Amino acid sequence: MNQVTTGTSASEYDAWLASACMPPGLVLQLLDAFHDPQAVYTAFEQGDRSIRTKIPQRFADLLKKNGCEQNLRHLRELMDKHSVGVLRMNDPMYPDELKKIREAPVILFWQGDIHCLQNRMLAMVGSRAASYSGQKAARKLASDLSRQGISIVSGLACGIDASSHQGCIDGGTPTVAVTASGPDIVYPKENIRLRNEILEKGGLILTEYAPGEKPAGWHFPYRNRIIAGLVRALILVEAKIRSGSMTSVQHALDQGKDVFVYPGEPDSACFEGNHQLLREGGIYFTCAGDILSDLDWLDNQSAVRHNSDCSATVTADTPEQAEVIRALKPGKLGFEQLLELTGMDPPSLMSTLTILQISGRIEALPGKQYQLRYQSNPEG
After folding, report:
1. Measured between alpha carbons, how far is 291 from 279 in angstroms, rounded to an integer?
2. Is residue 1 part of a domain?
3. Can you give the CATH number for the domain in which 363 is found?
4. How many other CB atoms sit within 10 Å of the CB of residue 36?
5. What residues have CB less than 8 Å from 279, skipping those under 6 apart?
6. Once rounded to an integer, what is the mean pLDDT over residues 164-173?
7. Are 48 and 192 part of one and the same domain?
8. How many angstroms from the chain centroid is the CA of residue 141?
9. Residue 9 in this model has a pLDDT that exceeds 60
């Protein structure tokens, strides 16, 4: 069985192969044909026609440039200096969840504790130019989840990412940062102290980019597929409709992951992306317990809410709300089922569901389903 590659004498060939930023499918083809990066390098250097025909010229030019002995030695020195490990797709530590995604990275570079990938993980994403309330909410939520043994995965950007990582550290569980540059490149510079603290507290820096690779604009949205791919579900804390965070959301949805959405401030443009997602069926939550309950990750299963305990205590303010509550009394239902049972049109139903969620009377579940929220009986 292959072992995790951790700075061995052959690791510079992994870095060499990754340095061309080729599509993962092409890298897989090369490794299927030649077994490992060192064999790919040997065939390439010897002018093997079978490999030359597989690699488009723009990638071949980069590999040729980076493949001289001087550059290989530089890659080796960078990996040794920064304690960079290599994780290939066929290594036993490579997360099964990540293998399932479209264009899963074939070679990953890491610093820190690779065993973090064995933890239960949730992603938290949001705006770089985040509001104070968004950053405060992100740090508290991450801390609360961390105290339950959840590792938070984010992108080490300013704003929500940084608050999420810091909150996870506060809670005592290591955090995972997926970056859009080589493992030796600190970006953004403002987060160098946070990056160091992540490593000092047993966390992990993870990237598909080779040492020396500087961040480029297209790296960030492409990187986001890894953030979503590592985790059970993704949490959107704060985002405008057009933002990089929404690409993370889209990756999560494409991968079939649940997306939890913090409601934020209803009249704030900073949360317009959140509000749109809630209208489209994003999962509303107010605290870490909501998320853990919906994912069946509560250690105390008696704390999971059941509709049978609360159906009689949920009140309505409008006839539309009364129809929805009545329909949900027997148990959880999907949006289409609610349309049929209530006779409401889709916009009215979605508006009613949103109001009931915000007021805490119902909750959204994975798969666009809804149920009544537990409310304690004041006499019990």
Report:
1. 19
2. no
3. 1.10.10.10
4. 18
5. 350, 354
6. 96
7. no
8. 15
9. no
